[in-house]
Amino acid sequence: MDPIELRGLHPSRELDPGSFRQPVEGPDRSGSFADTLSRAVGSVDEAMKVSEMKTQDFIAGKSENVHDVMISMQKAQLSFQMMVEVRNKMIETYHEISRMQI
Asked: Of 42, 70, 92, 101, which is least surrounded by CB within 10 A?
């Protein structure tokens, strides 16, 4: 192991077992599922808009950093693919639930 990785490790210190426990709390009530989904779609939309803006700036000659353009395009593409896969899983789950016998 690299000595740099070992910085801050002190084997002589006593560990408090209580420090590893997570506080037990109820489910996050900050928003509904629809709100969460809406924010996720908005985030994907924002990534697409940023990518489009950076592409237009590059084409217009306002920016010469092609790496920034390509990275923003990849981020937008991955975000969109993830959104499509989540949608597919939601539809698949809906169909599974609808086929259940009650």
From this structure: 101
Lowest mean pLDDT: which of 19-33, 53-67, 88-102?
19-33
DSSP 8-state symbol, 23: P
- Tokens representing residue 64 in the block: 């010469």
State the burial class of residue 54 (Cβ atoms within 10 Å of its Cβ: 0-12, 13-18, 19+). buried
Is the pTM higher than 0.90? no
Task: Give the position of tokens 């210190």.
Answer: 13
CA angle 93, 96, 101 (to 5 degrees): 140
SS3 64: coil
At residue 86, φ and ψ (nearest 5 deg) are: -65, -40
pLDDT tens-place string over residues 52-74: 999 999 999 998 889 999 999 99
